[in-house]
UniProtKB/TrEMBL annotation:
Transmembrane segments: none
Species of provenance: Saccharopolyspora griseoalba
Protein name per its UniProtKB record: NAD-dependent epimerase/dehydratase family protein
Chain coiled-coil ranges: none
Domain NAD-dependent epimerase/dehydratase: 5-231
Matches recorded under Gene3D superfamilies: NAD(P)-binding Rossmann-like Domain (3.40.50.720)
Pfam families: Epimerase (PF01370)
InterPro entries, A to Z: Epimerase_deHydtase (IPR001509), NAD(P)-bd_dom_sf (IPR036291), NAD(P)-dependent_oxidoreduct (IPR051783)
Amino acid sequence: MPLRVVVAGATGVVGRTLLPRLGEREHHVTALVRKPERLEGVPADEVAVADVLDPDGLAERVRAAEPDVVVDLTSGFSAADRDEGLRRTAELRARGSKNLLDAAAQAGARRFIAQSMTAAYQPHGHDVLDEDSPLWTEAPDGWGEVVRSIASMEEELLTRAGIEGFVLRYGSLYGPDTAYAPGGELHARVCGSELPLVEEGMGLTSFTHVDDAAGVILEFLEGGDPGAYNVVDNEPAECSEWLPAYARMAGGPAPVSLTLDQAKAQLDWLTVHQLTEQRGATNFRIRETLGWRPTWPSWREGFASLFGLWPG
């Protein structure tokens, strides 16, 4: 059954993958954007120009779209400066997502689907974490601001009466146009020997290909029960495993190795955290309750495809 779907953040990496698929299923798509010029080449039935931080203008545009479902893919992580990206993302989650949820409820939307992230989980030993694990709201610096804003957004969405809320906690997003793609920020860091291994590091990363990030939204337009879901592949990996493999496929040098003390002296706090103590996530809940299976079950095949090394 065709639905009316509003997608905020339509110009991001997940939005650009999602919109064509919505069109293929004959859903009516309204792309909600701040800068319509960035939508070039991205299909949409309508374009609504609004800032999610402007509640009045936002409410007017969403009401006019008459949505059945609203999808929130807004993010500030594309900012060139990491601190600015953290600040912008925290603001979008704390204020923008609430404004969008209010607008969706006022417009009579039945469902609201919001992007979140598994990286927000509080580190705990060597565990792979599920959706009942706490978010790290006491994390330091700008990262703590982001996690607290995410926790607030998730609670607001999952407890709002009158609308079904879905939180999709993605792993590290990779695929075309992401930081992992040729020319992306992580690709440049790896090929420039700027992302090392840490000898004492046991950081785990869960990965999500943008194909899977977009595909699961299609499943939740009508199916599934409201709640929070980890949307990740089947193979969380230590940095000592995925980083050298990525460097080889990208044609870059092998990562250098640092001690923990050297890493703390040379790298920013967030990078050290990701390499040494971040935990991975399990996709058991979404596999069992929705019957979902990732198109890319392992980052190994996904990375290989990204560099033209995987058949098909």
